[in-house]
Structures are given as structure tokens and as C-alpha cells.
UniProtKB/TrEMBL annotation:
It comes from Paramuricea clavata. The lineage of its organism: Eukaryota, Metazoa, Cnidaria, Anthozoa, Octocorallia. This is Uncharacterized protein. It comes from the Eukaryota.
Length: 235
């Protein structure tokens, strides 16, 4: 999807032919939503996260990679490139048998060290075999190894990003739960106050009823005492 934006020259320079939004989408596809973009000046745009930092110079379309992972990413982009620029002199050197042999030996020694595989055994068993096979195989293994390293780091970055996002969501839920708990506590206090108020009202009502009974008894007694004695005699 993005490889049409990548142009790599044989001198190790990498260009991003797309626009800034394309580059942002590419970095987001690699590392998720982590990382920040900034404008350091000089017509450059900078991307940085905990794992890698790059600069893209808009006018020259040049991509500059920093840190060890940046070199791995650069090699990965080189492999993805569909627009590799080659110098004509390099084609002439490939036609020179001696130069071709030196180049092959160099690739074998370097790439063997990089991937940690002893390919010298292949030369011992097949002394007449061309060094091109070794160079091709070593280069292939080196590319695969670097790609795996980058894929691993990118996967770790995405996992960390998801953990961070989930952690933020969990923290938010915990904060909301704490708010609900506080609100629930306030409601419980209000209910307690209402219950206490009702109990006080019931107590007051009981006292009033008791007083009413006492007053009624006294009233009846007073009425009885106020009736003349001759009233009873006549009866």
C-alpha cells in the first residue's frame, strides 16, 4: 500500500514521495497512535516515539533515520522499495569478475555475521559453486532477520499502545466508579437523615397522643367532679 511512496538509492538514501499525511498514516500503521509529530524547522517534519525517531525534509523528500531501530526500519523500507536507483558504474563493476568476487565475499562475510549462521560450510562442501548463491542466500537471511526484528518491535509497540489505552480506560472506569460510590454515600446519608427525621416525628406524635389522653382523662374527671351531688340523689 505504501511502497509506491518509497524510493531508495544504492548509496543508502531513502526518499518518501508521498505527502505528510501519507507518511503519518504509514507511521501510524507501523506503531499505532503512539509518537508525536513536530516541526523542528528547516522544512523538516519530525516523528518520535520511545523506540524510533525520523526526520522528513519536505522539499528534498529525504527521510533521515535515527537510533538502532531506525536503521532496521530503513533497511526494511529499502526492501519494500519499488524504485531503486542504481548508478551506471555499478553495472560495469558487476561485469568485472574480480570486482564481482570481492563483492560476493564481502556480502557473505558481513551477512553471515549478522544472521549468526555459518555459511562457510556450504563453500567447503561445494567448492566449485558460484559465490552468487551464498551472497543471495546471506542477503535473503539478513533481510528476513531484520524484518523479523522490526516486526517484533512494531508488535511490542502496538501491544504497549493497547495496554496504555486499556489502562486509561480502566483508570477512567475506576474514577467514575469512585464518583458513583461518593454519590451513593451521599444518598445513604440523606436516607439516614430522613429515617431519623421520621423517627423523631413518630416520637413527637406518640408524646402528643399521650398528652391528649392525659388531658382527656383530666377533663373527664373535672366534669365528673363538677356535677352536683343532688343530681345523683334525684336519680
Amino acid at each position: 500500500m505504501y511502497k509506491e511512496f518509497i524510493e531508495c538509492s544504492n548509496d543508502g538514501k531513502v526518499k518518501w514521495l508521498g505527502n505528510l499525511n501519507d507518511l503519518k498514516a504509514f507511521m501510524s500503521a507501523l506503531f499505532g497512535d503512539v509518537g508525536k509529530w513536530s516541526s523542528p524547522g528547516g522544512g523538516a517534519k519530525s516523528y518520535r516515539n520511545d523506540l524510533i525517531s525520523i526526520n522528513w525534509y519536505i522539499h528534498k523528500k529525504a527521510l533521515i533515520f535515527h537510533d538502532q531501530l531506525g536503521i532496521v526500519l530503513k533497511n526494511k523500507l529499502t526492501d519494500l522499495s519499488v524504485n531503486k536507483i542504481s548508478d551506471p558504474d555499478e553495472y560495469n563493476q558487476l561485469n568485472d569478475p574480480e570486482a564481482k568476487r570481492r563483492s560476493t565475499d564481502h556480502l557473505c562475510s558481513v551477512n553471515t555475521c549478522e544472521v549468526g549462521i555459518q555459511t562457510d560450510i556450504e563453500f567447503t562442501q561445494y567448492p566449485n559453486q558460484s559465490g552468487e548463491r551464498c551472497a543471495s542466500r546471506c542477503n535473503e537471511l539478513s533481510t528476513e532477520f531484520e524484518g523479523l526484528k522490526l516486526d517484533l518491535v512494531i508488535s511490542e509497540s502496538k501491544i504497549d499502545n493497547k495496554i496504555r489505552i486499556n489502562g486509561d480506560a480502566i483508570n477512567q472506569v475506576q474514577a467514575e466508579f469512585a464518583i458513583i460510590q461518593n454519590q451513593l454515600g451521599e444518598v445513604v446519608q440523606q436516607v439516614d437523615r430522613l429515617v431519623n427525621t421520621n423517627e423523631n416525628i413518630n416520637t413527637k406524635n406518640a408524646i402528643i397522643i399521650t398528652l391528649q389522653k392525659v388531658l382527656l382523662e383530666r377533663l373527664m374527671r373535672t366534669m365528673v367532679l363538677s356535677i352536683p351531688l343532688n343530681h345523683y340523689a334525684m336519680g
